[in-house]
Amino acid sequence: MDWSVYLSGxxxxxxxxxxxxxxxxxxxxxQFTGPVTDHSASDDCGVAILGPEENKFWHDRKGAQFNAIxxxxxxxxxxxxxxxxxxxxxxxxxxxxxxxxxxxxxPLIVMHDAEHQHALKEVDAAALAVCETPEQIVDILRxxxxxxxxxxxx
Length: 154
Hints:
This protein has helices at 15-25, 39-50, 56-77, 92-103, 121-126, 134-146; strands at residues 3-9, 30-33, 80-84, 108-111, 129-131. The chain has a five-stranded parallel sheet, with helices on both faces. It has six helices and five strands; from the N terminus they run βαβααβαβαβα. Helix content is 49%, strand content 15%. It is α/β, with parallel strands linked by helices and 154 residues long. The chain is globular, with a radius of gyration of 16 Å.
């Protein structure tokens, strides 16, 4: 069985690539999905397709609604949802994705630095795993899919 893993969250670092390459290296049967990570395409898709808006609220709303079509479908089909909270920006959309996944009963893995533990305590409480690195995500996937630990010795 191929597992479907949705990768949500910040788009300014290569964390997705690290997870995808790590899963390939571990020969895990995983298909990855995620949001559109081209920031300007994601922001402007609504007005690019349906026409400009004078008011920024409606500009953003068109884009958000288009992106929600992709997000809702992909999270709904996912076996596992991974949500990464980055250092530089507040990812409100990532928090929404985590809440949506939790509401659907999807297994949730959250990744963020220790400095965000307090701010994300409710999100962390809904997660089945909380970690700090993409490599830990790969190790979690390896364990839950194959029952194997990476580099573990007693």
